[in-house]
């Protein structure tokens, strides 16, 4: 299994501390090989980063406390951990990719499937963290070393599901960093609460959020950028890669890589052939599709975006129930969880 399942419990600082300790053995080597970190270091002590920090502290103080705990666990300066967690707000292009599919079945089930694409160095070096918090529902999330959970794929004990796709926007606006917002969504209990958070807080970076809930029949596609927030109710089926495609946002200045364009075209072609009888096997097959020079399942060491698929998640959402299956590059699940049940 290319990642480890770890349980963490406590208050905000304790959880952040544990996440930092989990990543500490790897972090210095990871950053040393990262071209993203090299580019970020130019932003050290820049007033704009201080402005992002002020927005994060003012709007999401609980998440800021987690970041401080993470810095303590990593034995890194808070300003450097903040810098790493603002990479998509500062740089127009980072090695964070992903493809997401969503489907409503005839029997009322809602499905969200997701390829987590990132730095190939991280293959086999990430975790699936199961976090119990003193003051929030708690959640399960794929965890990159030193990054706030939530910006990958995850779900919380209230039955809220979120998957994230990177958007390479060319805009920068002062606001709450996008990884803080993604983390904060996992503290929400309803879709309405999550979309209000994304809509109402000032945001500095761009993410696509696919959202579902055990207490709500809707599936929502949200393109959240520095210039606009577009919320789309998903009808029956949907696919999204790494650029803005909503009518409200697609004209914004952005970087559309060849991989993202090819994956978007391919995933749209696949989901257009789905019916309400489609199920989990079809979602997994779509996410593990290898057709074309720049396929949906990304395993090429020479990937032009510098990204490989690190894990594949399939969420099944029913009334009062969310199950998660996490796969490597094969059809048998490595981990299967009933997310809304408390861990034993």
Automatic annotation (TrEMBL):
Ranges for domain Peptidase C45 hydrolase: 107-327
InterPro entries from the UniProt entry: C45_proenzyme-like, Peptidase_C45, Peptidase_C45_hydrolase
Coiled-coil stretches: none
NCBIfam families cross-referenced by the UniProt entry: C45_proenzyme
Protein name listed in UniProt: Peptidase C45 hydrolase domain-containing protein
């Amino acid at each position: 299994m290319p990642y480890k399942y770890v349980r963490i419990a406590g208050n905000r600082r304790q959880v952040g501390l544990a996440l930092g300790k989990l990543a500490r053995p790897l972090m210095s080597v990871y950053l040393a090989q990262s071209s993203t970190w090299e580019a970020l270091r130019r932003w050290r002590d820049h007033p704009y980063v201080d402005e992002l920090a002020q927005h994060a502290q003012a709007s999401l103080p609980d998440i800021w406390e987690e970041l401080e705990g993470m810095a303590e666990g990593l034995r890194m300066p808070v300003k450097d951990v903040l810098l790493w967690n603002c990479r998509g707000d500062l740089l127009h292009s980072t090695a964070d990719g992903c493809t997401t599919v969503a489907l409503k079945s005839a029997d009322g089930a809602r499905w969200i499937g997701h390829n987590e694409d990132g730095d190939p160095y991280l293959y086999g070096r990430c975790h699936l963290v199961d976090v119990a918090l003193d003051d929030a529902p708690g959640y399960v999330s794929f965890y990159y070393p030193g990054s706030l959970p939530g910006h990958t794929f995850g779900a919380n004990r209230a039955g809220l599901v979120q998957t994230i796709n990177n958007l390479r926007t060319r805009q920068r606006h002062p606001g709450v960093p996008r990884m803080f917002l993604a983390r904060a969504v996992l503290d929400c209990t309803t879709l309405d609460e999550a979309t209000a958070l994304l809509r109402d807080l000032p945001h500095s970076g761009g993410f696509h959020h696919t959202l579902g809930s055990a207490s709500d029949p809707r599936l929502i596609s949200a393109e959240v950028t520095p210039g606009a927030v577009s919320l789309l109710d998903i009808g029956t089926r949907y696919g999204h890669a790494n650029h803005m495609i909503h009518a409200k946002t697609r004209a914004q200045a952005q970087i559309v890589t060849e991989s993202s364009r090819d994956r978007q075209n391919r995933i749209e072609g696949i989901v257009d052939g789905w019916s309400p009888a489609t199920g989990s096997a079809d979602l997994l097959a779509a996410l593990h599709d290898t057709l074309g020079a720049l396929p949906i399942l990304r395993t090429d060491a020479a990937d032009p975006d510098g990204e490989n698929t690190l894990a594949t998640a399939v969420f099944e959402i029913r009334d009062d129930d969310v199950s998660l299956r996490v796969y490597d590059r094969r059809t048998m699940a490595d981990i299967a969880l009933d997310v809304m049940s408390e861990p034993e």
